[in-house]
Structures are given as structure tokens and as C-alpha cells.
Amino acid sequence: MSEGHLDFHDAKGRRRILVIEDEFINREILGFLLSDTYDLAFAETGEQALAILEAQFETLSLVLLDLNLPDMKGMDILRRIKADVRTAMLPVIVMTADQEAEVESLSLGAIDFIPKPYPKREVILARVLRTIELFEGRDIIHWTERDQITGLYNREFFYRYAAQFDSFHPDEATDAIVLDINHFHMINERHGREFGNEVLRRVGQKLLEVVREGNGIVCRRESDTYLVYCLHREGFEDIIESVSLQMGEGYRVRVRLGVYPDVDKTIDMERRFDRAKQAADKVKNSFTGAVGVYDSSMHEKEVFAEQLLESFHTAIRERQFVVYFQPKFDIRPDKPRLSSAEALVRWIHPTLGFISPGVFIPLFEENGLIRELDSYVWREAARHIRLWKQKLGLSIPVSVNVSRIDLYDPQLLATLQGLVAEFGLNRGEMLLEITESAYTENSEQIISVVNSLRESGFHIEMDDFGTGYSSLNMITQVPIDALKLDMKFIRTAFADRKDTRLLVAVIGLAKSLGLPTVAEGVETEEQVDALREMGCDIVQGYFFSRPLPADGFETFVSGLAGVKA
After folding, report:
1. Do strands 225-231 and 321-330 pair parallel, antiparallel, or not at all (unpaired)?
2. 97 exposed, middle or buried (CB, 10 Å; 0-12, 13-18, 19+)?
3. How far is it, in rounded angstroms, from Cα 261 to Cα 41?
4. Do residues 446 and 407 lie in contact, with contact meaning Cβ atoms separated by under 8 Å?
């Protein structure tokens, strides 16, 4: 539904009325009575009426409906008007000589009657005007709380009505449900926005039909996400089946559900649907099921995540985050030579013990805390680079991670420049690792930022290449100084089948572009020899050393005979 629905007048400032009447003389009478005041559209059959409603529903202010038509019953037209979210709020005045039809018409949604034979002109005009004015006032209120495309509640009013739903069902179990359309962005891209909007409307209408039967309310929260709040139910396959629409020949809309069953009514409404969304995300891209259910394990994970978030600033202040260093070796000489190290953060919590980076780093990326953690790691790395220069007489470059969020910080370059100046480093001693996925989001801005870092003298490595975000062509288009091959990429190449053809191709492409390659996750001498033969320049992994705390790394470096960095 477009916002144009609120424009109730034609070019001359007159409201538009659809008159559905098969008798010529009655159409003439109504035209004579109303045409001076209103713009009229006439339909002689049900088929004509439905066509006009489909094409002009946004400009209509009223429908005058005769119940006896040659091709269908007026009651059926009334049902269809009220069943369609686009026209459900459109007022209908029934015109009939059958007084017994009054109750049925009112129950189906008619707002008033004009009896046949017609009363005085003043009576008809008064009823029409009153109905239209009532509708317009109600319609403005209606579309304040409704989504303009589907006619469902918008998010703000949905949460209000969901709270009211609780007040009417205080002792009954209720479910919070999130529904997402799979790959909806591709629907818009392949078929156009108009087709996409039609999908949204039809999904919303089908969802509303199913939920009404189970006593619930529905909203479209954003894009292709719908929320449902209803009395607790067992099984959700009927929703999946009803909403997985066939849109034209050979094309089927598929959806997934996240359900938070029997919600905890002591937590706020938004959080209930956050939990349902977590469940929906659990089955994203799943081939085995389309319904995810929020359960105790997800709750425990959520509670644990909250605990980590609450502990973050204390952990920074108490230096619970410990920076480990994993050495990188240049394997081009016959005897591999230490070339640099990578800074890796570990969290040693006083009560929870060791917390995996795979747990807390994605959490902090999602909540924006990663910027503060990255700054902490950068400072620790810079401090140790200076310390090793003083104690060991060696300059050991250290690569640090720059997250996607960091790249949107307008002070990023100034911050890094300030660090190297504060610790007396040159910019080649602090290497910056940026994941390949960062380049795929708002790539023009990211490339501009990375170029400014390189122009300032920082060395840029593309991290995690081969995780599936990009094409080989990508490395020819983005500003980098080295290509770092993801650990999983290496492990896959050296798995049981030992199919290294893609690895050879990537290393060869990088070499043709003058880019050195770094392979991480190298565990055996056989892998080192194979990578050297392929032309790989630098490796890191357990074959040489696991990540070490700073004092352990210092001991490791001191024990290398004749090492030159």
C-alpha cells in the first residue's frame, strides 16, 4: 500500500465512489444524485467491480454495492473486499430491498445500508458523506499504525498491541514467532521491486489468515521479516505450507520460522522477538528444516554472551586480555627464517577461565566493542615490538587485525600514526591484516581508507583469503601488499585427496601481481615443502610454533640460532 492511499480526492478535489449496480435505471438515478459532488466509477458485473478495485483501490473513498448481480453474489464481492488487506478498510454501503440481508452484510463488514427504492437525495448524500468522513479519519489512524506495503501492523504499534494481547490472556501461554523469506534480496534483484512488493503482500495476507485462526496478531517488521504473537500452538508446518507461495510458473517463495514458545512474560516484548530471531537464524540456509525453536541451550548461550558483554570493560581495565604472538617464517631460503609475527588475543577470565576467541570476537564485532579491543591489542603489540628491539636488538614486525568496524572510524589513520610515533616504531613494523570480507561491504569507502593507510606507509595484508566471500578476480582490484591464505583453505588443499590445484592457482596469480603469499595453519614438514615448491613465501602454524604469550615468544626467538629478522 503506497502513501498515496491517503489522497482521497480527484484532480477537482472530489472523492471517488465505485458504484456496483447492474440495473441501468438505478445507475442513472445514482449518477444524477451523486455526480455533482463525487467522481463516480460504475461496474455492471462482479467481474468489472473486482477489476476496478484491483486497479483503483488506492483512490476509492467508498463502494456502493448492489447485492444482486448477474455473474456473482454481492455478498461474495463484500467478502473479497474485506479479505484483501489493501481494501479491507474501504467502507461499503449495501444497496438492497432485502431487509433480511442486513445482518449478514453487517457481519461481513458493510458499514451502512441504502434501501431500495432509494430514499430522498438528502438522505443518500448525508449517509455517503458521513461514511466517507468516518472512513477518512479512521484510515489516517489506520495507516499511522500500519505497514504501507502489506497493511499489517508496523513494529511500533505491533509491540503495543502485543502487550495488550498479554493483558487479555494473562494466564495463557503465548508464542513469539519470526518469519523470514529466504533470499528475498534476490527476488527483488531478479524480478524487480514491484514483484517483490507483491510477494510481501501475499505472504503477509496468507500469514494473517493462518494466525487469525489461532487467535494472534501479525506485523511486518522490516524488509522481509514478519512477527507473529499468538496463543501457544503445537507445530508450525501449517504456517510454512500456507506462506510458501507459488508465484508464477516454476517459482516458489520459501520461508523459515524462528519460534520462542511459551514466552517468559517477565522480559520485554522486543527481547522475546530477539530470541525468536535467534532461532530463525539457526535454520538459515538449512536444507533439513525450516523451523528453529529457541531452547535452553540458546538461552544459556544468550546468558553467557550477556555475561561477557558485562565483563568487557573490567577485563580491559584488569588486563584479562592477553596478547599472544605466533611467529611467521620466510620459507624461500633453504633454512626458514623468522620474518614477523601475528598478534592474537586471548581472554583469561578470573572465574570463567580461558574463553575462546571464536566466542567473544564475533560477539564484540556484533556489539561494536571490537574497536576498543583492537585498540588494546594494537597498543600491546606496539609495546612489545619496542621491548624486543631494546632487549633482543631485533626488529620483529607484528601483524595486527583491523576489523571492518575499525575501517569506518574517521580517526583510524591518526590512531595508528599516533601509536607508532609513541613507541618509536616505523610503519613497516606494524602490519595491518584486513579480512577479505571487509572489502565486500561498501567496497569503495573501504578501498579509499585502505589506500590512505598504504600511502601513509602501513603494510596491508588481506587476511582469511579463501573463506568463500570473494572471487580470484578480487585480489586484482583491491589495495593490498600481501595475500594471507586462510587456515581452512590450506587444510582443505592438503586433506586426504591432496587436491592443491586451486592453491597453486591462487599463489601463481598472487605472484603474477607481485604479491607475496602467507599460508597459515601449516602443520607438517611435507606441507612446508609443498608450499615452497608452489612459490609460497611465508608460513605460520604449529609446525614452527603455536601462538605464545609474550615471554614465551621472547624465549622462542632467543633460542633461534643466528636468526635475522
Report:
1. unpaired
2. exposed
3. 49
4. yes
pLDDT tens for 71-95 read: 999 999 999 998 887 788 889 999 9
**H or E element, residue 396:** none
The C-alpha cell at 52 is 476496478
pLDDT in tens, 201-238: 889 888 888 887 768 899 998 889 999 999 998 888 88
Can you tell me the distance from the alpha carbon of 3 to that of 11, in angstroms, rounded to the nearest whole number?
A: 17
> 358: closest CA among 306, 402, 305?
305
Of 143, 141, 165, the residue nearest 154 (C-alpha): 143
Could you tell me if 283 and 258 are in contact, meaning their C-beta atoms sit under 8 angstroms apart?
yes
| pTM score of the predicted model | 0.60
Angstrom distance (rounded) from CA 49 to CA 2: 21
Please name the amino acid found at residue 146: R
Taking only the tens place, the pLDDT of each residue in 323-379 is 999 999 999 998 999 999 999 999 999 998 999 999 999 899 988 899 999 999 999
Long-range contacts of 289-295 (CB under 8 A, 24+ apart): 290/240, 290/254, 290/255, 290/256, 290/257, 291/236, 291/237, 291/240, 291/256, 291/257, 291/258, 291/259, 292/256, 292/257, 292/258, 292/259, 293/258, 293/259, 293/261, 294/258, 294/259, 294/260, 294/261
Which residues contact residue 21 at a Cβ distance below 8 angstroms, ignoring those fewer than 6 apart?
Answer: 27, 30, 42, 43, 44, 64, 66, 95
Residues paired with residue 178 on neighbouring β-strands, in sequence order: 227, 258
Task: Evaluate whether 91 touches 48 at the Cβ level (below 8 Å).
Answer: no
Peptide bond into 357 cis (omega under 30): no
Question: Which pLDDT value is given to residue 549?
Answer: 96
Residue 563, pLDDT above cutoff 50: no
CA distance 70 to 390: 99
Cβ atoms within 10 Å, residue 82:
16
Mean of pLDDT over the chain: 86
Return the C-alpha cell found at 316.
580491559
Domains of the chain (ranges; CATH) run 3-144 (3.40.50.2300), 155-294 (3.30.70.270), 316-558 (3.20.20.450)
- Work out the percent of the chain whose per-residue pLDDT is above 70: 91
- pLDDT tens figures, 112-126: 888 888 888 898 898
Contact 538, 328 (CB under 8 A): yes
Find where cell 511459551 sits. Answer: 262
pLDDT at residue 287, rounded to an integer: 66
Residue where the block lists cell 516454476: 250
Nearest in space to 158 (alpha carbons), one of 253, 258, 251, 226: 226
Question: How long a stretch of residues is the chain?
Answer: 565
CA 277 – CA 293 distance, rounded (Å): 10
Q: How far apart are CA 424 and CA 420, in angstroms?
A: 6
Per-residue pLDDT of 251-305, as tens digits, reads 788 888 999 999 999 999 999 999 999 899 888 876 667 888 998 788 788 888 8
